[in-house]
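Retro notes - structure team

What went well: the batch runner handled both jobs without manual restarts.
What didn't: labels got mixed up in the shared folder, which is why I'm recording both outputs here explicitly, each with its sequence directly above its C-alpha cells.

Job 1
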Amino acid sequence: MSKNNWNLKFSNFFRLGVLLLGALIVLLPLLVVFFTSFAPPGATLEAGPTSNWSLANYRNAWERGKFLLAFANSTLVAIAVTAFQMVTSALAGYALARLKFRGKQALLLVVLATLVIPFQLLVIPIFLVLKWGHLINTYGALILPTGVNGFGIFLLRQYFQTIPVELEEAASIDGANRLQILWRVMLPLARPALVTLFLFTFIAEWNDLFKPLVFTTRPELRTVQLALAEFQEQFTNNWPLMMAAVTIATVPVMVLFLIGQGKFIRGIATTGIKN
C-alpha cells in the first residue's frame, strides 16, 4: 500500500471518528431521556439504569398531561402556519426571483432585515393588533402572526433562481400565464426547497411555547409545549414521568425530520447557488 493511500485511509477514518464522536455527544442526552422514560414509576436518576422497563410512565403522562387535545391543537396550528408560509413564500419568492419592478432590491433587503428581528421584540404591537381584531384566545392568534416568514421567501427566491429561465419561456410560448408557470413548472421543480420550508416551519411551530403562552389563556387552546411546561411544573420530582412526557412531545417532529431529511439537505445546499 502506497503512502498516499495510507494517508487517505487514515484521513477518512479520522473524519469518521470525529463525526461519530459528535453524533454520540448530540445523541447522548436524547438516549438518557429515552431510557429514563422506561424506568419504574417514581425511580430517581441516582438509581442508575434498570432492567425493569415499563410503559406505565407513557400511559400516565398521556392521561395526566391531556396530550390528546394538545396534539390536536399543535397539529392544527403547525399545519395552518406551514400552509400559509408555503403559499406566501412561493408567491413572494417567485416575484423577487423573476419579476422586474421598481424597488425590488430594496424590498429584498427589507425581507432579509426581518430575519434579524426577534419575534419577542414585536410581541406588544402584535398583541395590540390581535386585541383590536378580537383574535386573542383564538386559533387566529396562534396562526396569523407567523403566517409570513422572511426565511421562507428568501429560501424559495434562491431556489427559483437555480431553475433555468428557458423552462418558463417554453411554458409561456404554450400559453401559460405567470400563476400557471409557478404552479405547473416552478413548484414541482422546487420540491426540495418546499420540503425544507415545510420541515423548518412545522418543527418551529410544534416547538413554539411563546405564542400560546402570551396570546391564549383558554385551556382548550393548549398546545403540546404549553401542556409539557404545565406538566413539568406538576411533576418536578418524578423524572421517569417527565422524561416520558418529553419523549411524547419530541417523537413526532423527529419522525417527520427523518422522513424528509434527504430533500431537506438538498434544499439547504442549493439555496446559495445564485445571488
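Job 2
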Amino acid sequence: MVKENLKEVEKRIQEACERAGRDRKEVTLIAVSKTKPVEMMQEVIEEGVVTFGENKVQEILIKQEILTGNLSWHMIGHLQRNKVRQLVGRVDRIHSVDSLRLAKQIQADFEKQNKTADILIEVNIAKEESKYGLMPEETENVIREIAKFPNIKVHGLMTIAPFVNNPEENRVHFKNLYKLLVDIKSKNIDNVNMDELSMGMTGDYEVAIEEGATFVRVGTGIFGSRIYQ
C-alpha cells in the first residue's frame, strides 16, 4: 500500500509542478516518518525516497541506528533547547527554529563540536494561537540576529499552515510566506540564503508547490494515518 500511495503522491507533485511551470527537481519530497516503523520507511527507500522528516529527536536517533545508507534526516517538529546537542551531526536541516533563544542554543551546541547547523526559520504565517513560529512582522529582525551566529546557516522559511478541509483556503498563507521569503532575500543579509521554502503537508502540498514550496512534508499521504504506541 505504501508504494501505491507514494506513486500517487509523486504523480500529484509532478502535476502541480507542471501547472506552476516548475521543474520537478525544484521540489524535495520529505517523507514524514514520525511514529512509523522502519519497515514502512524501508519500502519508500526502495522506491528512491531518501529524505525523512521526524518530530522527535529520540526517534531520529533510534531510526538512524537501524536505517543506514545515504539518507537525509530533517527535524520538522518543535525542538526543545535541552535536546539540541543530540542533533549535532545528525540532521541535514532543522525546519523548526522558532525563536532567538533556540538559535542561541543551536549556536552553542554546534560550535562545541565545530559543526554548522543548516536551519529554516519557522513562521506562524496564519497567526494561529495554537502554533509555534515567529510572527511575520518580526521574522526579518530575528533573522538578522541569527545571521550573526557563525555556526548557523539560514536557508529559508518554514510554516505549518492551518488544518483545513479545502486546501485552497491555505493558498493565501503560502503566497504570504513566499512574499516574505522574497522580501527578506532582497535585503541580501550576510550569511543568509533565502532559497528554501518548507510548506505544505498531505492535505495541501499541491497548492504549496503552486505557490513556491521547495520542501513538502507528506506523512499520511504516504504511510497512512499515524501510529501511536
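One thing worth noting from job 2: The chain has a mean pLDDT of 96.
We'll revisit the folder naming next retro.
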